[in-house]
Structure prediction request, 247 residues.
Amino acid sequence: MLASANDLPDLKGREVVVVTENAYPPLQFIDPKSGNAIGWEYDAMNEIAKRLNFKVSYQNASWDAMIPAVSTGQYDLGMTGISIKEDRKEKVDFSDPYMRSEMFMLVRADETRFADAKSFAAFDKGLVGAQAGTSPFYTAIYDILDGNEQNPRVKLMETFGATVQALKAGDVDLVLTDGVAGKGYVDASGGTLKLIGGPLGGDDFGFIFQKGSDLIAPVNAAIATLKADGTFAGLDKKWFLDYKLGQ
Prediction:
């Protein structure tokens, strides 16, 4: 039988250092009004900390530094919409999945030259903006283009936000994002961006830990209760339906 919130482990107020990128709305981002870091993952992690009785301390790091830093114990836990991948499991341990993500095509609202993955592939002048080593990067290479990871049609950038800015500026023609973040950017764009085509495959998101961390089992137990009692469903409604980024 599934444990209730009252049956969860008690971590007795220990500090847990959580690292994130703050660049992936509505999972985690900087509120343009208040300047505070907010989002689905913050709400979820704060509730996990409450139920497990630990003190959470948040730090910020770039995507490319995050997995190596967690793997060496610089941080206790990482969260930034991280897809559970076999190659990443060689470096870090994952929690159970807390969200299912599907990739979609984010383009400028006036885009008419292509309407799906096949027509974008055929549009040989089209450029994709992506962060190296991310799910959008691999989806672009293997699901849309030719499987060549050096394909010059993929323009590498430091952050996901930078790819969206490049799209808005006309420097690239396509950004791949899961539907969650894509909806957030469309809502915030004032009618300048849109999502096109169907989903291009799915990934499960998980929190990451140093190999063998004693936090994995307690966090997994908390995730199970958050799923079972409707807390995650409530966060989905709050962040994906009710919240309009930038309004």
